[in-house]
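User: I'm putting together a teaching handout on how multi-component assemblies are represented. Below are the sequence lines for each component of a complex, exactly as they appear in our records. Could you produce the 3D structure of the whole assembly as structure tokens, so the students can see both representations side by side? Please keep the chain order the same as the input.
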Amino acid sequence: MCEDIVFDCLHAEIVNYCIASNNKHVDLSTLEYIGFTTGYRLIERLTRDAPRFKDELETMKFICTDFWTLIYKKQVDNLRTNNHGTYVVQDKAFRFLTRISTGSQQLEHAPKFVAFTCGLVRGALSNLGINSTVTAEVQSIPACKFHIEVNRN
Amino acid sequence: MSRQTSRFDAKKVNAEFLTLTYGALVTQMLRDFENVEDVNKQLERIGYNMGMRLIEDFLARTQAPRCLEMRETADRIQQAFRIYLNVQPSISNWSPALDEFSLIFDSNPLTEFVELPQDLTNLRYSSIFSGCIRGALEMVQLEVQCWFAQDQLKGDNVTELRVKFIRRLEDAIPAGED
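Assistant: Of course. Below is the structure of the complete assembly, with chains in the same order as your input.
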């Protein structure tokens, strides 16, 4: 899989571009939005031949197994839910963080590298009919937790 | 679940993911800049930065020796496209002085789901390629110029990327230290 490095480079440059284009304060919404549109379109290609998902949990499982394996080359390490629309996805070696040194001084830069993925997951879910808010939490590099909050209204 | 996983062709999905991400980036840039020329410049710059990094990976992966003439360089570029994007451009249209050649793409993976609207005819969608080649070659002391002579998005039959040798870069004192 040689294309991985290409994507890693592209991702790094996208992060660079989004950070540089609004230099006053770091605003990750553009980055998140690029992820969102990508996820939204990608899921259409991925689930083209898939049968309809039974329920929300099955959709989440799809995201955590197939989707994650294809994009991040590994399954998530842990998926938890409170059965009321909150899901926590844990990845102990998140792809975009594995190339950053594990010291705590790099921690402040971590949000830049997870924002795209937040958008990607939100976009994917959105096209599967689930409105959600996705946030990420990095306590120690390269582990990362994604909180998916399903919006019901 | 194992039944489901086998449904996907990982290589294909990778390429599609790259294509879609790139598309989202271009869309965002078109929103950010009013001028299409600025978008072209930004894409080129991004390609340049990527090329500078990818050449390291390429040299480590292929253990390619130094190229002594442009013919070899052209072969290496072709090889790089095969490794990184799984496309095989053909090399043709050499200039008599052998300092200029074309890479012909029958299909361009970056433009797979793309159609240009009428008002964006100035957009060089795949500018990232030319930036990449320029950045990568600069790291091996070759200054080249790189531009699109034909583009499938603009109705041509093939996509033609033209590469022109400018000069060999010499080791020099870093900028600002003289």
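A couple of points students might notice: Confidence is low (pLDDT under 50) at residues 1-5 of chain B. The first strand of chain B starts at residue 90 and ends at 92.
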